[in-house]
Amino acid sequence: MTSVVALADAIARHLADGPWAAGPDPHEHKLRAEVARCDGVSFFLELVGSRIEARGIYPRGVTGYVFSPYGERAPHCTVAARRNPASIAREIDRRFMPAFLAAHRKAVADVEEQRLSLERARAVAEQIAEASGGTLYRFDRRLEEQWSVHVPDGVIRVRSSSPEQPDIRFELHGAPSALAFRVAAALRPSRKRS
Fold first, then answer.
1. pLDDT class for 1, splitting at 50, 70, 90?
2. Which terminal residue of the chain has fewer beta carbons within 10 Å of its beta carbon, N or C?
3. Which DSSP category does 18 fall into?
4. One domain for residues 93 and 124
5. Total Cβ atoms within 10 A of residue 154
6. Same domain for 155 and 90?
7. Phi/psi of residue 30, each to 5°?
8. Are residues 90 and 130 in the same domain?
9. Please, what is the Cα angle at 182 between 177 and 188, to 5 degrees?
10. Is position 192 within any domain?
C-alpha cells in the first residue's frame, strides 16, 4: 500500500497554480498529509476509507485564533483514492480549490484586520495611560486583546473592535459625584451655535 504522503506528493505534482509539495501531517495523523505552496497556502489530503478528502488549513491570527470560514461549511471535497493522481488533482482543482482559495484569501484579510485593530487599541490604551497617569494592563481574549488603564477612581477599558477605532469604556468606582459630573460633561456632544 502506498503511503498517504507519497500519494499526496504524486497528486501535488499535478495541481494547478503550483508548485505544490506534500509532507507528513504536522500532528502525526497517519492517514493525512499536508500539501503546501511556497506562499503559505496549504491544505490536508486525508485518506478516509476508499476516498481521499481535501480540507483547508487556515491562518492563525495574532491571538492564536484560527480564521476558518465562520458560519458556513468549510470548503472540502472527496475523490475516489483508486483514481490516478492526475485525475484526483483535476477534481481537487475543479471542485475544491476555487472555494478554498477564496476562503483562504478572506481569512488572510481577516488576520490583517485583526492585527491592525490590536495595534490601534494598544496605541490608544498607551496614550490614555500616559495622559491619565494610570497603570496599563493587558488581557488576551480569543479574538482580541483588551487593555485596562487603572486610575484611582476607576478603570478605562480599551478593546479592539475595528482597525479604525477601538471600543473604549469608562467605569467609575467610588468616585465623588463631582468627578462623575466632569466626566459626563466631557463626553457631552458639543452644540453648534447659530
1. very low
2. C
3. -
4. no
5. 19
6. no
7. -65, -30
8. no
9. 125
10. no
Rounded Cα distance between 193 and 147, Å, is 37
In DSSP notation, 107-125 reads HHHHHHHHHHHHHHHHHHH
Q: What is the DSSP letter of 74?
A: P
How crowded is the C-beta side of 147, counted as CA atoms within 13 Å?
23
Percent of the chain past pLDDT 90, that is, above it, reads 45
Q: Residue 106: inside a domain, yes or no?
A: yes
Q: C-alpha grid cell for residue 15?
A: 495541481
Residue 132 in domain: yes
Average pLDDT over residues 175-189: 79
Q: Which helix (H) or strand (E) holds 77?
A: strand 76-80
139 lies in the same domain as 103: no
Q: How far apart are CA 169 and CA 110, in angstroms?
A: 24
Q: How far is CA 155 from the centre of its chain?
A: 29
- Judgement on whether residues 68 and 142 belong to the same structural domain of the protein: no
The answer to pTM > 0.90 is no
Q: Which domain holds residue 123?
A: 118-187
Of 58, 86, 110, the last residue of a domain is 110
